[in-house]
Amino acid sequence: MILHLAFFRWKEDVSAADVAELTASLTEMAARLPMLRSYECGENLRVRPSDIDYAVAAVVDDAAALETYLDSDAHKAVYDRLLGRMIDTRAAAQLEVGSWG
Questions:
Q1: Residue 53 phi/psi, 5° resolution?
Q2: pLDDT reported for residue 98
């Protein structure tokens, strides 16, 4: 299995309402994508100091499933409508993980 992590820092004009709409849209999107084994997204809790504002964690079976998720019309729609205009910087990583959940 693969754990895909994406980290975002927002542009200065991103509002709390933008973030809430993004979270709702991503959560709804994830519920419709069967290749996602697990999906979490949300604002950084900042338990430790960090310049990251938001993170996404998605678990899929393999690289093909990850590509299918990232290239899906549903993912592209959320990016085009919300995420793309919000991002100042982005970082991502993929880790091989054992069984999940």
A1: -95, -30
A2: 85
